[in-house]
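Entry 12.
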Amino acid sequence: MKKWLILVASIFITHNAYSQCQIGINEVDEFDSTRVVATIPVSIGYMIPSRYEDENGPKMIEEGKIIILYTEQDSINAFMMTIVVPEHKYLKIKNGFNVLLKLSSGRVEAIYDVPDKSEFDRSINMHSYQHTCVLTFNMFYRLTQETIEKIRINYENSRRTISVSKEQGEAIKEAFQCIGTVTKYYPRS
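Predicted 3D structure (tokens):
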């Protein structure tokens, strides 16, 4: 699964045309018949300085990216949201309800996170964390109707809050609607 996410992130450019439905992957694995559908990455947060510097100063990078995924194999179907964020130092985190979403309705929802161990990215001299959040169908449908305003990631000894702009929130909502349309889960009939 991680290889698919890296492939999507490296092949496709960031989602700038917010009103278009753009799918990065929609294929069936020929070995185990697993269908994988993924959106192209949506940027979140602000531009932040990395720890990589040249004569012009620190390299500016995006605070994070989100990819919406759907997998289907036999009778098991799942929606996931992967959040990729750079961190200045190595942080410990375990599986659990570590990711909180503040929605446009004012509700704060905790979602289950299965984080990968960080990888040190030499191009920015920072650790890159990939948080794969498993979504219930209720949460999926909620995210097709509401926008995300903030994301909080709770590490063992620290936390990170990412503010999502209105345009980014709309792009995330449209990505959920897009993947729902492709997988025939949205709109509900």
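Annotation: The two ends are 30 Å apart (CA to CA). Residues 2-19 have pLDDT under 50 and may be disordered.
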